[in-house]
Amino acid sequence: MKQPIRLLLPVDGSVYTRRALDFVLSRQEWWREPPFCVLLHVESPVGTALARSYLSRDMLDSYYAEQSEAVLAPARASLQAAGLQLEAHHRHGDAAAQIVKFVREHEIDLVMMGSHGHTALSGMALGSVTTKVIASSSIPVLIVR
Length: 145
Hints:
It is built from five helices and five strands; from the N terminus they run βαβααβαβαβ. The protein is an alpha/beta fold. α4 runs parallel beside α5.
């Protein structure tokens, strides 16, 4: 029996993340079987390397987990309300690099992400994270505007 498609939804709490999530929820008929949704939030590193050297690993890990949970919770609730299976993960570091690394490590079939994130400049066609993921990914990436 074939496993359902593993769909990665990188989330950052932006309106574009919400659009990607809404896109998945409104097109469930596209799938023979509902996709297994994998949420991923990548938190930017705290300050500089010097500043981080003054903080304990536990303190940093707690901060990253707290920030990520605040972003992941609404997406998780929406997917659960729709009856979709999911898992949620968080990382910290360069968002594009972490997304591409996560894809390789977790056998993801499709990345579906918003065209921009929180730092989007209105004149750009795509955000920098999105552009880097497209350029580096070995699997299909569906961009939602």
